[in-house]
């Protein structure tokens, strides 16, 4: 109980830190704390495998991607390290309205009774040694569900990742983006000719 | 203690998730830096994921774990493509203020 409120306060504080920082690098640090706290949350919900995945993929891959993009873009261009700092004119009234809406949502949620145990409970158990099969949230339990019952979504995941990789290469892999291919061919041809001329002079 | 019971009632998880989702939405709407907007989108993904895992734990059904796993994968793909778009737009427009990048505006 106490753990939930401490972790929840950390989670909300780090989320506010992420969106309130002027420099994107500080936001990345806030996001790192957010993901770490979230991983602890997942452990308390007996989802050990997903806690590890959270650390590995989010903190290890996605945040590194953010850091690389920030480092790449901020080199050579001075204003980027600060970034656009303007707030829209409607920021304060919009925040007030959103806060009231959020308060109403949370109030409604907290008042709604939800049955969470009883007829819905599956035969798996949370008791038993960690990692053993048929223990809820264990790697064996998760892997069995992933590769039997939910095999098709897992395969679609592979397809999504392949599309993402091809998309990223198609977007950012070219040196001269948004240049029509005929024009780009002329540029390449000219550069090659100049290189040949330079070679001939030496 | 009942072994199926959550550490705290499920409504607390829903409320916490709603709060983080609203913070992420506020970040997308209030900030004009595309990197911080992408990070706010990650906050919203994670709010949804927390709720998936809380409900999976409450009903002891690991379909929520599978869904959270797929959400993490899709979030990784989205972050990669979003950052690639930011890099490409920055190369041609030399700015990262999303209000100034208006060439696609109808």
Computed structural class of chain A: mainly alpha
Largest sheet of chain A: none
Order of helices and strands of chain A: HHHHHHH
Distance between the termini of chain A: 77 Å
CATH architecture tag of the domain at 1-79 in chain A: Up-down Bundle
What would you report as the Rg of chain A, rounded to the nearest angstrom? 25 Å
* Beta-strand percent range of chain B: under 5%
Radius of gyration of chain B: 18 Å
What can you tell me about this protein's structure?
Chain A has 202 residues and is an all-alpha fold. Among the domains of chain A are: 1-79, NADH-ubiquinone/plastoquinone oxidoreductase chain 6, subunit NuoJ (Four Helix Bundle (Hemerythrin (Met), subunit A)), CATH 1.20.120; 151-202, no CATH class. Chain A has helices at 2-20, 24-44, 48-74, 91-111, 139-149, 151-172, 181-201. Chain A is extended, with a radius of gyration of 25 Å. The relative contact order of chain A is 0.05. Residues 78-82 of chain A have low confidence and may be disordered. With 106 residues, chain B is mostly helical. Chain B has a single domain, classed as Helix Hairpins (Orthogonal Bundle). Helices cover 74% and strands 0% of the residues of chain B. Chain B starts with 9 loop residues before the first helix and ends in a 13-residue tail after the last helix. The mean pLDDT of chain B is 84. At the A-B interface, helix 1, helix 2, helix 3, helix 4 and helix 5 of A face helix 1, helix 2 and helix 3 of B.
Which characteristics define this entry?
heterodimer, A: 202 residues, Four Helix Bundle (Hemerythrin (Met), subunit A), extended, B: mainly alpha, Helix Hairpins
Secondary-structure topology with pairs:
The complex is a heterodimer of chains A (202) and B (106).
Chain A: H1 2-20, H2 24-44, H3 48-74, H4 91-111, H5 139-149, H6 151-172, H7 181-201
Chain B: H1 10-30, H2 34-59, H3 63-93
């Amino acid at each position: 109980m106490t753990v939930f409120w401490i972790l929840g306060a950390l989670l909300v504080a780090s989320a506010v830190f992420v969106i309130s920082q002027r420099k994107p690098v500080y936001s990345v640090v806030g996001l790192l704390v957010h993901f770490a706290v979230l991983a602890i949350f997942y452990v308390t919900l007996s989802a050990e495998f997903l806690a590890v995945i959270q650390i590995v993929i989010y903190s290890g891959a996605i945040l590194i991607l953010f850091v690389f993009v920030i480092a790449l873009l901020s080199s050579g261009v001075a204003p980027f390290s600060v970034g656009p700092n303007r707030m829209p004119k409607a920021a304060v009234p919009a925040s007030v309205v959103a806060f009231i809406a959020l308060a109403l949502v949370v109030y409604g949620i907290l008042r709604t009774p939800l049955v969470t145990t009883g007829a819905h409970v599956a035969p798996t158990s949370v008791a038993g040694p960690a990692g053993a099969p048929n223990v809820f949230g264990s790697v064996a339990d998760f892997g069995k569900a992933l590769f039997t019952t939910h095999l098709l979504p897992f395969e679609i995941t592979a397809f999504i990742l392949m599309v993402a990789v091809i998309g990223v290469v198609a977007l950012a892999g070219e040196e001269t983006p948004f240049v029509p291919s005929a024009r780009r061919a002329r540029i390449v041809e000219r550069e090659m000719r100049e290189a040949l001329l330079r070679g001939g002079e030496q | 203690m009942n072994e199926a019971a959550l550490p705290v009632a499920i409504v607390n998880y829903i409320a916490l998730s709603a709060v983080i989702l609203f913070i992420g939405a506020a970040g997308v709407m209030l900030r004009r830096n595309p990197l911080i907007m992408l990070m706010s989108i990650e906050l919203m993904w994670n709010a949804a994921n927390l709720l998936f895992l809380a409900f999976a734990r409450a009903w002891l059904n690991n379909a929520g774990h599978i869904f959270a796993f797929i959400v993490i994968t899709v979030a990784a793909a989205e972050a990669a493509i979003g950052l690639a778009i930011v890099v490409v737009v920055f190369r041609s427009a030399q700015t990262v203020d999303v209000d100034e990048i208006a060439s696609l505006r109808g």
